[in-house]
Design goal:
The complex is a heterotrimer of chains A (408), B (343) and C (449). By secondary structure, chain B is mostly helical. Chain B contains 15 helices and four strands. In chain B, the strands form two sheets. Chain B has a two-stranded antiparallel ribbon with strand order 1-2. In chain B, strands 3-4 form a two-stranded antiparallel sheet. In chain B, helix 1 packs parallel to helix 8, helix 1 packs across helix 12 and helix 2 packs across helix 12. Chain B is globular, with a radius of gyration of 22 Å. Chain C is α/β, with parallel strands linked by helices and 449 residues long. Chain C has two domains: 252 residues, Response regulator (Rossmann fold, 3-Layer(aba) Sandwich); 160 residues, Rossmann fold, CATH 3.40.50. Chain C is 34% helix and 17% strand. Chain C contains 13 helices and 17 strands. The longest helix of chain C has 20 residues. Classes of the chains: A mainly alpha (408), B mainly alpha (343), C alpha/beta (449). At the A-C interface, helix 3, strand 2, strand 3 and strand 4 of A face helix 1, helix 2, strand 2, helix 3 and helix 4 of C.
Chain lengths: 408, 343, 449
Amino acid sequence: MLGLKKTDATLLIVVTILTVFAPFILNPFPTSSAMAQFNAGYPDLMQRFIIFGIFAIGFNLLFGLTGYLSFGHAAFLGIGSYAVVWMYKLLDYNVLPGLVLAVIVSGIFALAIGFISLRRSGIYFSILTLAFAQMMFAISYSDLIGRFLGTTVTNGETGLQVYTSDPQILLSAGETAPHFLGLVEMRSTYTLDAGAWSFDFNAGYYFCVVFMLMAFYLAIRIFRSPFGLMLRAVKSNQQRMSYTGLNTKPYTLAVFVISGMYAGLAGGLLAAMDPLAGAERMQWTASGEVVLMTILGGAGTLIGPVLGAGFIKYFENIFSKINDNVLHQWFAFMPDGLEDFVVFVIHPFIGKGWHLTLGLMFMMVVIFLPGGLVEGGQRIGRIFRRKDRNSSDAELDAAKQRNTPPAE
Amino acid sequence: MDAILLQILNGLDKGSAYALIALGLTLIFGTLGVVNFAHGALFMIGAFCAVTLQRIFTLSYVTLDESQKDFLGNPLKVETPYVQSWFGESLGAGIIDWSVPLAILFCIPVMVLIGFVMERGLIKHFYKRPHADQILVTFGLAIVLQEIIKYFYGANPIPTPAPELFRGSFDFGVLLGFDPNAIIYPYWRLVYFAFSAVIIGGVFAFLQFTTFGMVVRAGMADRETVGMLGINIDKRFTIMFGIAAAVAGLAGVMYAPINSPNYHMGMDFLVLSFVVVVVGGMGSLPGAVLAGFLLGILESFASMNEVKNILPGIDQIIIYVVAIIILLTRPRGLMGRKGVMEE
Amino acid sequence: MSKSNFTRRGLLKTGAVAGAAGLSLPTYLRADGHSGFTNAPTGSTVTLGFNVPQTGPYAEEGLDELRAQELAVQHLNGEGDGGMMNTFSSKALQGNGILGKKVEFVTGDTQTKSDAARASAKSMIEKDGAIMINGGSSSGVAVAVQGLCQEAGVIFMAGLTHSNDTTGKDKKANGFRHFFNAYMSGAALAPVLQNAYGADRRAYHLTADYTWGWTQQASMQAATEAMGWQTVNNVLTPLASTDFSSYIAPVLNSGADVLVLNHYGGNMVNSLTNAVQFGLQDKMVNGKQFEIVVPLYSELMAAGAGANVQGVFGSMNWNWQLQDEGSKAFTQSFGEKYGRPPSNSAHTCYVQTLLYADAVERAGTFNPCGVVEALEGFEFDGLGNGPVLYRADDHQCFKDVLVMKGTENPTNQYDTLEIVEVTPRAQVEYEPDHPMFAGGDLGACNPGA
């Protein structure tokens, strides 16, 4: 199907089904129940799952295939967002021109940064990309370009937003929010109430899903192509590659640019869902986040990075909102003394302590699941089908390959 | 001229903090081949050793003073530190005043212990894992460590002043024949500079002139061969990790009076210290120290008004510009060895 | 299937019926199609969203805001001693919730990042059905969340935000700010500084390089120059700086005799600590004692700077040491519950919660447009700082401003700052079209669905 092997086609279909039905899957608890706190099926978070999924898939193309660890990928995310918001400011709220521009501009930046950074490898490459990203962060955070030109380019730490005084030359009457070709507004949501449950179907979410499936499909194709094989060869031993008289740089540069364009697309989609672009998206913490997402999910696997992205965003948005009040509601059935004790024990891990839980999770996953979350999934899968333990699984191969340290 | 001298002085001081942190980081890189993202957290814990000792010294008993009211109109609770009632008012106050320097003694065993536990309990299992896994696990550990500190000490910075003796600043200008107040520099920062020079010198001497150091250096160069000689290199590496943790901790203790410690100060230094280490060259201790001072001085120069007037905002990006230039002109940083962390 | 309001109609078509406002507006979760506004409460409860920094450098500030907001919810629901509800000049609140509905709340973490703050606010609006968002500890976040609330059609009360832009360039009809702003700090501080240090001073500014820093610096420069001070230099410092020594070292040699630190939070703690380390205050320049000024104070940051704040002037929105009935009642109520005096951001968030509830009661509806109407031009007393006005033109609150000084000989851990002067409201007022606030457009209130 679509030029994919059977296992890959299955994976793509599974991902399609999961994303299309995510509004149901992510809202398993009735709205008024105490467990509703764990529901993640509201538009904003679902959009973030998908968008950061795209970001991580793109990052994984570079890191998972070639082993080049970029520590400045968030720069492209930020550029994508700025491109889209600038298109809002100049043209109108149609997201399409912005997204096209986001991918192009981030591709150009990736070409320039990649061309320079790829002259070095290993940690030297990581620090070069970090340095470029941090420079771009500092420049946008204080709007140094804007100060130089005497105008607003990034609008500093407040973030770039649309003002009524902006040109918006194509703006039609009544147009106040991002939309796709005037057909559908990104924020429009259809709410389905089914008994005690409530499910949200958001236009923007499905818009992102379309891009994510395309991105995912393209990633599979790259993984399985001769180009992808070449990149893996670079990972296993670049020196040997160059001894064969082959110049690997065009290959690595190509994948760096593709990966940067994925990030630009993700950044563009962030601004397409929510018309704001902030410099924080470029900070090293954001670059670090996508590294963590990828490793956590399983670097070099296809689905891993998406899982990792979902995992981190879930903790950030769900655990940070649990407060003591909520805990008391959950454990209200217990005797008073015990209830207070349980709340006291759990208290450090929720609300303002969500970082602690996340940190512990990082450690647990990497200690017990060396191949990332994907390996966890595989272990569960193996319990169910013990017989064909030796079946070759592309994802498992990748996880295994990753665990053999490169020859030094 | 005086402005330039002042910024050199200042750069040396900034650089000494960078160099100390980078030194510990490079020890771990070089000896163990581990990317330790928790190194910033060790620096932070060092600073909180000073806070903790200050808290211990100011443990107080409470007496009610009926003549004064607190904000709710109840009698004011007056706290008297135990040390003051035990050792007398002035000696007790003196001990509290000197809590930061005394914390050095307190910090060394604590940090070495933390280093041992970290290496034996966690890092040891990651020697053969990919660098990416090391990053993930140490980053997770850094978050956990800093959240633990936040849980006990809160998120606010905690003032930990230097002893009275070292407050105020020294007038270098007068010595050099400039006007008074032209070149002044705080005493405590001078102490910090001297202190880090001693620590850096100590670490180098230790590696250079002791058998232990020789074995470790040999292990850094070729771990397998040293192992085959029947030398228990693992044990020495554990000790090395303890030393690196102690160096980070000492950098933190002495830094506490310069800026009030808070739970995320480690993260603020993390990225910068990696840049310093890499610019210095992977696996090179002198490189790390050199890069620390170099970047410190350049950062100070970039923040001069004369420079900022020509290039606005240069002080925000100078470190990264310099890092890019150095890494492009010198493939392995200033003094890096071939083949270390290049895959 | 209950309702379908999928706006799959062309915007061009919508444009033709643009007169019928609200048609192309989004439908958020649980928005009742008939009520005409976002998240209209349908059951016996109403949900407020408290969006404060719980991680990162401002976590303590956020925690204190959260404490105050929980207290306000208790008071609204008729629990506890009622706090400022007893001293508030408007008597619409009955202690039976809001419009008879019990008040519930959800909390979130802004991380002091615009993105995270918007994500958190969105989850409150989309998932929890929050009808109002309250809190925050930075101007960047306040502006970002204010924009979101305007789009979503809920009320935003800003928390701690001091930049002129929040009710200037970036003002929004659905947003209100109880906190004072940079202009007011300058206007309140200048006369006090003139009294204390004289009219012939040369000031050196260190300014955090972001929007709030710039507006704070511009305000201070304008206010001090108006009384005769000269500005020697203004140096922008990167927000990420932790060590300010290289910026402070040249100050003494520049001929300046006052250092103005336009920094807040961790920046302020560090720059002030560094400046004191250099012993600047012990020096004599131009025959005068060298002085340091910190335009914006907060109790928590003053505590972080410790003894370094002693004798340093700054300004504040409110302080627990105020002796009016409202402040006393709030401090008492807060202190008994949490064992510590409230900070000024806690006061702001508490008061904003009450004011929102009161506005709903007076409007008789939760509809944001009704609330906006009730709050615009609202004058009241009894919530601290004397008589207060919520100006209709820009939704900025006008009230007395406090000039503070670091206590020289603190007697306990909360005794860090003392009130030097309560600057009357008239002295800090300005025209809505003042150049420092120009360029914005309040727009019309947006009820959402």
